[in-house]
Design brief:
CATH class of chain A: Alpha Beta
Helix content of chain A: 40-55%
Structural class of chain A: alpha/beta
CATH class of the largest domain in chain B: Alpha Beta
CATH architecture of the largest domain in chain B: 3-Layer(aba) Sandwich
Largest sheet of chain B: 6 strands, parallel
CATH topology of the largest domain in chain B: Rossmann fold
Strand content of chain B: 5-15%
Largest sheet of chain A: 8 strands, parallel
Number of helices of chain A: 15
Shape of chain A: globular
Order of helices and strands of chain B: HHHHEHEHEHEHEHE
Number of strands of chain A: 21
Distance between the termini of chain A: 35 Å
CATH superfamily of chain A: Monomethylamine methyltransferase MtmB
Oligomer: heterodimer
Number of strands of chain B: 6
Number of domains of chain A: 1
Helix content of chain B: 40-55%
Strand content of chain A: 5-15%
Distance between the termini of chain B: 40 Å
CATH topology of chain A: TIM Barrel
CATH architecture of chain A: Alpha-Beta Barrel
Number of helices of chain B: 9
Strand order of the largest sheet of chain B: 2-1-3-4-5-6
CATH superfamily of the largest domain in chain B: Cobalamin-binding domain
Largest interface: A-B, 43 and 28 residues
Radius of gyration of chain B: 18 Å
Shape of chain B: globular
Chain lengths: 463, 226
C-alpha cells in the first residue's frame, strides 16, 4: 500500500469547499450538540460505570460505535487555516475505514515489528512504543534513549523531545524545528546502535509538533525512513485539524512514505462533555482521522480535564469502551495512550500504568505509546524503569478477559485516585538513575519490584 | 415582582437563556434600586457554575453558554450601575503563543474572565509575540495572559516579555503565564508578573494587580496555586 494522492487532493479540496463556521459556533453548536444528540439517540446517557472502569458489555460498545460513526458524519473536521469543515458522507467514511491496513510491518532486519489489528481480549501480542514526547535536555537524550532501547519489551521508539538543538532553545513552528527533525533522527539511530537494536522502527518526529520537524527529518538522506518508520500526524484539539497536519500527509506522499500515525485526543469535561460524550467523540474523531489522513494506526484517547490524565475511573471507562467500540467494529490497527500523571520513582506511576495498560490490552488496542511520566509536565522527568514495567504489563495482559482487567482496575485505582489532582512529580532521570551505568537507584528499583509482585498476585503472568 | 425577576436571572444564567437575561435586565433598569441585588445574584450564580465545573459536575459548553448569558445581562445593566456597585474589572488580551494550537485551557480562562465582567480580547492560538503586544496596545488592556502547552512554545512567552522590555513598555501591562508545563519558577524566572495553576485561579490572581498603585516591574511576583 502507498499513500493515495487522489484521496489527499479530495481532502484538500474539502478544506476549501466545506461549510464555514466561527470557532465558538463550531465548538458549541456543531461538536458539542452533535455529540449530545448521538448520546441521546443511542440511549447512552448515564451508561458510564464508575464502579466498573473497564467495560464488559459488547452490545454497549457496539452502540458507542454506531453513535460515533453518526457523530463523525455530522461533525467533520474543522480546518483552522480555512475555517471550513472537512466533511465525509457515510460511504466516504466507510471507504476510508475499509482502506486502512489490518496489519503492516515497520523497522528493518531482525528488528522488524508487526503491527496488527486486535480484538478485545485478543492474545495477539501488542506493540509497545516508547517514550512520549516529554522534553529532555540534550545531555540526557542519548543515554536515556539507549537505555530505553535496551528494554526487551520495547518494540519501537517515538520520543523524547529535545529541549534544545546544539544548545539553542527549540522553538515550535520555527527553523529550529526543521533542524531538529534530522538531528533527532541522528541521535535516535546512534542510541539504538549503542543498544544493539539497529533497524528498530521509529515515529517521526517526537521533538516537533508542527510539520517543520517532519519536513527536516523524514524521507531526507540519513533521516527517518519512509518505508520503515511512521510519520506522526497529531491534530491538537477536539475535531480540529490544520494545514500543519496536512503538510505531514503530503510530505509522506512525496517522499514515498507508506505508514501514517493519525491521532489526537479528546478532553473529558471539555466540549465533548462527560464520559459518555467523550467516548462517542473518541470513536468519531478516530474514524475521521482515518478518513482524512489515511491512518495506518489510529486512535484518539481521552484526557480528563480535571487532572490532564486518563487513569481515573471515568476516563478509564471512556478509554476502554471507545477502544472496544472501534476494535470490535473495524479491522484497523488501533493506537492509544495511557496518560499517567505521577512522576518517576513513585509507586503511583506504576499503579496508573498497571491499570491503564491492562485496560488497553483487554480492549483490543494494537499499539500503545507511553509512558506519560509526570504527565509530561517536567523536563527530564521520565526513566526507563516505568517503560519496562509498561511493556511487561501490556504484553502480559494480552489475552486476559475484560473482567480480569476490571478487577485489576478496581484493586489499584483506590491506591492513587485521591492524588490525581495533586499529583507527585517524583524524580528526574538523573535523580532516580545512575546516568553512567544506566541503573536505577535502589529505592526506585525496590518500588518497581514491590508493584511488580502486586501485579503478579493480581494474576498477570510476567515472563 | 422585582424579587421574582431577580430570581429569574439565576434561571436564565443556568439555562443559558440570553434572550431571557436581556429581557429581565431591560425591565430591571427601570428600578435602579434593584440593580445591586440583581448583579450580586448573577455573580453568585456564575461563581456556582464555575465551582460545578471545577468539581466535574458540568462541562465546558455549559460554562461558556452561562458566561455568555451573564455577559448579555451585564451589557444592559452596567451603564446603569453606580460606580461603587461594579466589581474590579479590566481588559485582558489572551493568546496561546506562537507554534502552539492548544486552545481549550485558554478558552476556559477567557470564560472565567468574561463571567467576572472583564473585557476579553481572545486572539486565539499560534499568535506571534508582536501581534499580542500590538493588540494589547490597541485594546488599551491592563493585562496580557499567555498560554503555552509545550516546552517548545514556552520560549515565545518569554519573547513577549523581552519585547515589551526592549520597547520600554514593560510597565504598560501585567503579564500572566499559564499552561501545563509552565511552572511558577519558570514564570518568575522569565520576568512574568503572575502565574496561576488552574483557570479558576486566574481571576483571583489578577484582582490585586488592578487595585495596586505599583507598577509591574516594582511589584513582587504573584501566584495562585489552585
Amino acid at each position: 500500500m502507498t499513500i493515495d494522492r487522489d484521496r489527499i487532493l479530495e481532502v484538500l479540496d474539502k478544506t476549501h469547499s466545506g461549510p464555514v463556521y466561527k470557532e465558538r459556533d463550531y465548538n458549541i453548536e456543531v461538536v458539542s450538540k452533535n455529540l449530545k444528540n448521538a448520546v441521546t439517540k443511542y440511549g447512552l446517557e448515564k451508561t458510564a460505570d464508575r464502579a466498573n472502569p473497564v467495560n464488559m458489555d459488547d452490545d454497549l460498545a457496539d452502540r458507542y460505535y454506531q453513535a460515533g460513526f453518526e457523530a463523525a458524519i455530522n461533525i467533520g473536521l474543522m480546518c483552522r487555516d480555512t475555517s471550513r469543515v472537512i466533511t465525509f458522507n457515510r460511504e466516504e467514511l466507510q471507504a476510508g475505514i475499509d482502506a486502512a491496513p489490518k496489519e503492516f510491518w515497520l523497522g528493518d532486519g531482525n528488528q522488524r515489528v508487526l503491527y496488527q489489528h486486535r480484538k478485545p481480549e485478543d492474545n495477539k501480542l501488542p506493540v509497545w512504543t516508547v517514550p512520549l514526547s516529554i522534553a529532555v535536555t540534550e545531555d540526557v537524550f542519548l543515554p536515556l534513549v539507549e537505555s530505553l532501547a535496551r528494554i526487551p519489551q520495547v518494540d519501537a521508539l517515538e520520543g523524547p523531545s529535545l529541549e534544545t538543538v546544539w544548545g539553542h532553545p527549540l522553538r515550535s513552528g520555527s527553523p529550529y524545528e526543521h533542524l531538529a527533525g534530522r538531528y533527532q533522527a541522528d541521535l535516535m539511530r546512534e542510541a539504538i546502535k549503542r543498544a544493539g537494536r539497529e533497524g528498530m522502527p521509529m515515529d517521526a518526529v517526537g521533538s516537533s509538533t508542527t510539520h517543520y520537524g517532519v519536513l527536516g527529518g523524514y524521507g531526507v538522506p540519513g533521516g527517518y525512513h519512509p518505508k520503515h518508520d511512521l510519520i506522526l500526524i497529531l491534530s491538537i484539539a477536539d475535531f480540529w485539524t490544520s494545514y500543519e497536519s496536512l503538510f505531514k500527509l503530503t510530505h509522506a506522499s512525496v517522499t514515498g512514505g507508506k505508514y501514517i500515525s493519525a491521532s489526537s485526543w479528546v478532553m473529558l469535561g471539555g466540549y465533548a462533555g462527560g464520559p459518555e460524550g467523550t467516548a462517542v467523540a473518541s470513536v468519531a474523531y478516530t474514524l475521521l482521522m482515518i478518513a482524512a489522513f489515511q491512518g495506518s494506526r489510529t486512535g484518539v484517547p481521552p484526557f480528563d480535564i480535571k487532572y490532564m490524565g486518563n487513569c481515573g475511573r471515568r476516563a478509564q471507562w471512556a478509554l476502554g469502551i471507545a477502544n472496544q467500540a472501534v476494535s470490535r467494529n473495524t479491522e484497523i490497527v488501533v493506537h492509544s495512550i495511557n496518560n499517567q500523571v505521577a512522576g518517576p520513582a513513585t509507586k503511583m506511576l506504576l499503579y496508573e500504568t498497571l491499570v491503564g495498560m491492562t485496560n488497553l490490552a483487554a480492549s483490543g488496542v494494537s499499539n500503545v505509546v507511553g509512558t506519560r511520566s509526570a504527565g509530561g509536565r517536567r523536563t527530564n522527568y521520565l526513566s526507563p524503569l516505568e517503560h519496562q514495567f509498561g511493556g511487561e504489563v501490556y504484553k502480559a495482559a494480552a489475552g486476559i478477559s475484560r473482567e480480569h482487567a476490571n478487577s485489576i482496575a478496581n484493586t489499584f485505582i483506590p491506591k492513587y485516585e485521591d492524588m490525581l489532582v495533586e499529583q507527585p512529580d517524583g524524580q528526574s532521570f538523573q535523580e532516580c538513575y545512575n546516568v553512567e551505568t544506566l541503573e536505577p537507584t535502589a529505592e526506585w528499583q525496590q518500588m518497581y519490584d514491590e508493584v511488580r509482585d502486586e501485579a503478579i498476585q493480581a494474576g498477570l503472568n510476567f515472563p | 415582582m422585582i424579587n421574582e425577576k431577580i430570581t429569574k436571572i439565576k434561571t436564565a444564567i443556568i439555562d443559558g437563556d440570553s434572550a431571557l437575561a436581556t429581557s429581565i435586565a431591560n425591565e430591571l433598569v427601570a428600578d435602579p434600586d434593584s440593580l445591586n441585588e440583581a448583579v450580586e445574584i448573577a455573580t453568585e450564580t456564575i461563581r456556582d457554575i464555575g465551582d460545578q465545573f471545577e468539581k466535574g459536575d458540568i462541562f465546558v459548553p455549559e460554562m461558556i453558554i452561562a458566561a455568555e448569558t451573564m455577559q448579555s445581562f451585564m451589557e444592559v445593566i452596567k451603564p446603569h450601575l453606580e460606580g461603587g456597585a461594579t466589581r474590579v474589572t479590566g481588559t485582558i488580551v489572551l493568546a496561546t503563543v506562537k507554534g502552539d494550537i492548544h486552545s481549550i485551557g485558554k478558552d476556559i480562562v477567557a470564560t472565567r474572565y468574561r463571567a467576572s465582567g472583564f473585557e476579553v480580547i481572545d486572539l486565539g492560538v499560534d499568535v506571534k509575540p508582536m501581534d499580542i503586544i500590538q493588540s494589547a496596545e490597541q485594546a488599551n488592556a491592563q493585562l496580557i495572559g499567555l498560554s503555552a502547552l509545550m516546552t517548545t512554545s514556552m520560549p515565545y512567552q518569554k519573547e513577549v516579555i523581552d519585547l515589551l522590555t526592549e520597547l520600554n513598555q514593560r510597565d504598560d501591562f501585567w503579564v500572566l503565564l499559564g499552561g501545563g508545563p509552565v511552572t511558577p519558577e519558570y514564570a518568575e524566572g522569565v520576568g512574568a508578573d503572575g502565574w496561576a495553576a488552574t483557570a479558576a485561579g486566574a481571576v483571583p490572581l489578577t484582582e490585586p494587580m488592578l487595585t495596586t498603585d505599583g507598577k509591574p516591574t516594582a511589584t513582587k511576583f504573584m501566584k495562585v496555586e489552585r
